[in-house]
Amino acid sequence: MIGEVNPTLRRRKVATELRRLREEAGLNGVRVAGSLRWSTSKLSRMETGQVAPSADDVAKLLTLYHTDGEQGELLLQLAGNDAPKGWWEGYSDVLPEVLREYIGLEHGASSIRSWNANVLPGLLQTRAYATELAKINQRLDPAPPSRIERRARARLLRQQVLTREPLPSCTVVLDEAVLRRRFGDGDAAMMREQLRHLLKVGDLPNISIRVLLLEHAHPLDFSGFVLLGFPSLPVLGPISADIAVSEEYQAVALVETEERVYRYSLLFDLLCQAALDEESSRDCIASLGGL
Fold first, then answer.
1. Distance from C-alpha of 197 to C-alpha of 194, rounded to nearest angstrom
2. Quick one: which of 120, 131, 161, 243 has the fewest CB in 10 Å?
């Protein structure tokens, strides 16, 4: 199981556990840093997940916190350097740090719940659709064609998460306007291909696509958000608490406060209640695409 955890989630889980163990030991950061002759900023960066601590540093902290046995062994495995870097780290030239962090979280999620009112989520976009969005962004952030292509490719690579093992559950609620909206030159053929792709993806056993009709009462005015849930590890428990993600133009915000994430979860439940069921949603998508 440890080997399946990607570097983004490893770093976050180790940070959470180190912070918890220090608090359970009744120690403050200044005392711990002083005992190990570290700077307080080094310990702080470890506990906030800004850096991935080495196995050697984790071993020193475990000794100080009197933590051994299976729990300590699993933490040392998580802190090891045997996990290959995520593919998203190779796109640092076109993906900002917070977006790479989001992709790493998404890649390790066991459940993905998404609401979209303006554009289709990246996980469901065709290459043509993704490329048109990249061209639109270029008008506000000029970039050479190669950069546009890499952004589009990164969007498509994210879709690997939908078919990786173990399969994550993915529930998407789409505003009907998203299915009608055209981008670029308004190419009807491109959008028809996109709608056909939605029908195909919707056949996967782990994916549910629901449509919220324009004529139905909308329970909220959020343009879009994603909720990520995560699997558990033996002994150590959940890799991460649920996280909400708000994504607007060139801006991604990770929401991790338990109360706020819970509110997003309640909002998503309201959206599901207002949306069509899966079969009716499929008929709606097919009708709009003339399929």
1. 5
2. 161
Peptide bond into 166 cis (omega under 30): yes
**Type and span of the H or E element at 211:** strand 207-212
Residue 188: HSE in the Cβ half-sphere, 13 Å Cα cutoff: 4
Q: What is the mean pLDDT of each run of 10 residues along the chain (291 residues)?
A: 83 94 94 94 93 91 92 88 82 90 94 94 91 76 78 87 93 96 77 95 96 87 88 90 83 91 94 95 93 78
Q: Is 82 helix (H, G, I), strand (E, B) or coil?
A: coil
Torsion of CA 169, 173, 179, 181, to 10 degrees: -120
Q: Which pair of structure tokens corresponds to residue 213?
A: 């009709």
The Cα–Cα gap between 199 and 279 comes to 11
Residues whose CB falls within 8 Å of the CB of residue 289, separated by 6 or more in sequence, listed in order:
191, 192, 195, 196, 199
Whether this model's pTM surpasses 0.85 = yes
